[in-house]
Amino acid sequence: MALSSQRLVNIENAKSSLERFNSNNEQAKLRLDVQTTAISSVKDTVRDFRELLFQFSNGDGTDPERVEQIQNDAYRSLLNIQNLLNTEADGRYVFGGGKVNEEPVDFGLSSIADFQSVFDGARVSVPTTRDAHLENFSISRNSSTLNPAWLTFEQADAGTDKSRINSSVAQFSNVEVGTTIRISDTVGGTNDGVFTVDSVDPNGMWIDVRTEQLTDETTPVFATFTYPNPDDPQQSITTSAEVVFDRRTNAITASVANALTDIPEGSVITVSGSVDNNGTYTVSSNDGTDLVVESKRLVTDGGSGATTHVVGAGNTLTFSSGSGANGEDQIIAGTAGTYSSLESGQRIKINNTDTENDGKIFTIQSVSADGTTITLASDESVDVSTPTVTTGVVSLRTELFSFNAAERNFYFDSSVVGGDQVQFTDNGANADTITLTGATFTDADGDLLPAGMQVTFTGTGSNNATYTIASISADGATATLVSTDTVTTETAANAVADSAGSITFADNDPSADTITLGGGFFRDADGNNLAAGTIFSLAGTGTANDGTNFTIASVSTDGRTATLIPTDTIDDTTPTVTAGTLSATNTIGTISATSYYRGDNVSLTHRASDTRSFEFNTNAIDPAFEKAIRGMMLILQGEYGTEGGLDQNINRVGEALFLMDDSLNRTNASPPPFGDELDSNIEELEIELGFRAVLIDDIKNSNDQIIGYLEGSIADVENIDELDTITRLLDNQRVLEASFQTFSRIRQLSLTNFI
Fold first, then answer.
1. What is the architecture of the domain spanning 1-126+613-689?
2. pLDDT digits over 16-39, tens only?
3. What is the CA 421 to chain-centroid distance, rounded?
4. pTM here?
């Protein structure tokens, strides 16, 4: 009986285990069936598009209607594949690897026009290799120090037609050439945009990105220009002229006037015969002599600023209101070439001109061809009370943050405009005040001067002195002085007021130390407070703090005080100084690349039985899918008639056909256009999934047979003759009772009973 009971328990356990395997296999079979159906539909989509593309290749690839149709076909095919790879079964996305709770694929397709606005096919092109296509990273700080000021940008790398992004540490080593990167969060958005990586420093310190810009050629060359016939775009016209090329103005200038007149604006031109500018460009404007091409490039930013214009009698500085082509304000130098090194989008700072422009930062919209005139951003204005000056400095502001305590940040001359004056008031026992008419006590950023800031007055009758501000009225017109500063009541019509800055150190032990700026802010050139982690250097203060780098923990709301990290300590033996500089030379920005795949590469192991298992490792970045997706995107990029359009790059058809074939079939005899591709294809995926399905079916059939045998054994044990069982049980009971009685009698025996 005991042996039968134990055997029954073992059989029940074995049967239960097989039933659990069958239940789990049913769920796995459902997932396999769903994957198989989705892959079969993907195959049909790829095969259909491949056939359409093959038909396109046998016709006129420059016909606008045919190009539009094949790009529409690519768009619809991509949307279909995206939907199929986002297939869900039993609450799980089946192509997302281990991430089963969110859609694994997003091509970012909202419309063909939106896709082509990013991937224009010329400056930004669809990655041609798998590694570049699947790059996924985001870098926004120095990986060693976590300093957010970690970048510098160069408009042109050593005079080439590429722009360069430099890192303060080796962070680009693993970036693939051809990757599409997005630059974001730069100061003022100056360098925000999408670019294609053209080359990468082997040491990871820089990447060059593809741009649209000319390379300077000052020696005239006889160049040839080829462009579509306006009356028949399928025909080309060729013209030649002696020209020079200028990067800064994006201009191709003919030596003979009107030599380029026939080239229409908006057309795509192909230049040949030049030294460094052979290529394809889009014409922005053309007056027949100066042909301007469209340009997209980085703005040189980050690094130390530099003096651009030392104003003097031989090179004056003129402030002009509304003189730009669209009413913008302008800054004009007296000498040609003064501003030739400056770029659109850069910022300049004015100082020591004895005007209310001192301390202000302006954004360059454009620089004239002769380098004399800067046109400012349309929302910026200059003070023209004194239109032309013969003293002052114009400096380039490329660093993220800089402050020079000695630089002027407030200036007012009451004699410039009639009616302006300064009223000094002796308030007796109360604090004395100074009131401006025609101006306010505001700095170059338009903020009220802070308490503790010093203002120097000259040109008065009795009050030529330096005064310390206690507070400024809400309207900015009146300064209340500290109690130790006194004035003599007077109204001065020829008074001049100016102020520089100060740096105040505070050792707040045990709390974090702080640095406060008088007449300045811990802000970038766009007026944003510096982020936590920003590292700046300090020099020229004449204190023990010189030569030290400090890290910001936080910046006060008003931007004037930086609290340092706990490990940074300040020497405040001299609490306040009026000389010295602070600077953070690199700039901020995020460099990122995003793949269409949102899942992961985790393989899920399915145990089909005690001895058999397989991996669920088919995800949406399997080469079988990725090659087809990449090929379709190659066709979709580039608007018709532009330099990146399919009609201008018909080679993409053959490249895409190869990728379609390699995605579909196990064999492909054509040479790979982009180097060796990974071997996976849809045919192999179907075979592999089919094998797994057969394995599950075989195991289920085997399990069902074994379960049948086990159920028979269980029945043999459980379905016994009850009368026979009771009889045998009673017999066993009597034998057991007799044994117990015998044992009891034996225990009662004693030797004394026999003596």
1. Up-down Bundle (1.20)
2. 665 676 667 677 777 888 888 999
3. 51
4. 0.84
